[in-house]
Amino acid sequence: MNLPEPVEQVREAFDSVAGVFDETYENDITRRLRASLYKTITALVRPGGSILDISCGTGIDAIELAQRGFRVTASDVAPKMVERAQAKTSTLGLRTIMFHVGSMERLDEIPNALFDLAFTNFGALNCLGNLREVARSVAGVIRPGGHFLAVVMPRICLWELSAGLVRANASFAFRRFRSDVRATGFQRGTFTVHYHPLSSFRSAFNEWFTDAGARGWCVVAPPPHAMGFSSKFPRLTRRLTALDEVLSGVPLIRGAGDHYLCVLRRRAGNPD
């Protein structure tokens, strides 16, 4: 596969952790957030509908949605992530997921690609700087009136700002404002992380999509990388999570979580 250097760096990094991804990164917080995503998806598409999981990783979301009765195509640029997803579906006996290895900028390479809904979870779009190119690609595979759901890391994160300032760690508190942040936690390889404010994300997709709502994820509740805090302070975590449900829909605040979930509706017409 001939890939631009930034995309090749992403592929190498995620391939290096494919064998340990679920065991390393999945926890109670990620499972709660995934459940929120599924609730949104099932409100927009009926079982039997066609769904594209962009940057599917090890297939956690694709498998869940297939088990709920959707026809799922799962795509990722990292072949070893897709291999692990395929192995999991084979073990479960699932036959309703089609897999594809390719970049999110070239979704037109998926055979017979036209979906009721497409989504990408947990900051996959933060691996790329050029959102408009991705927007054009995504628009080409969604039916008019269909939806695109994106879970994206914004530039302002209230949890990281607070945690960094409490620890007198300004570098951590303001790291998302830098343009040279490199991804960590991989066994091999790294890449630049691009943080996208909600307003600029919507602007990049505006030519082909209309805004259908947004919610913050972990605005005041502990994010997935703060499981230590959650385990140490379970009662406070429950209270913060309940408060998060209230604040996550408030304009301005909803764009300052660890992630935000943006829902877009496909306009009529084809990308140029």
Structure description:
There is one protein chain. This protein is an alpha/beta fold and about 270 residues long. The chain has one domain (about 5-265): Rossmann fold, CATH 3.40.50.150. It is built from eleven helices and seven strands. The protein has helices at about 5-15, 20-25, 30-45, 60-65, 80-90, 130-140, 160-165, 170-175, 200-205, 225-230, 235-245; strands at about 50-55, 70-75, 95-100, 115-120, 140-150, 210-215, 260-265. A seven-stranded mixed β-sheet has the order 3-2-1-4-5-7-6, sandwiched between helices.
Question: Which terms summarize this structure?
Answer:
globular, single chain, 272 residues, alpha/beta
Secondary-structure map with pairings?
Blueprint: H1 5-16, H2 21-25, H3 28-44, E1 50-54, H4 60-67, E2 71-76, H5 79-92, E3 97-101, E4 115-120, H6 131-139, E5 142-152, H7 158-166, H8 170-173, H9 198-205, E6 209-217, H10 227-232, H11 234-247, E7 259-266
Parallel strand pairs: 1-2, 1-4, 2-3, 4-5
Antiparallel strand pairs: 5-7, 6-7
Sum this structure up briefly.
This protein has eleven helices and seven strands.
Structural domain count = 1
Please give the alpha-carbon distance between the first and last residues: 25 Å
The largest pleated sheet is described as: 7 strands, mixed
| Superfamily (CATH H level) name | Vaccinia Virus protein VP39
**CATH architectural grouping:** 3-Layer(aba) Sandwich
Beta percentage is 15-25%
Kindly report the average pLDDT value. Answer: 94
Low-confidence stretches: none
Topology pattern, helix = H, strand = E? HHHEHEHEEHEHHHEHHE
Main β-sheet, spatial strand arrangement: 3-2-1-4-5-7-6
Rg calc = 18 Å
Helix content: 25-40%
Q: How many beta strands in the DSSP annotation? A: 7
Structural class: alpha/beta
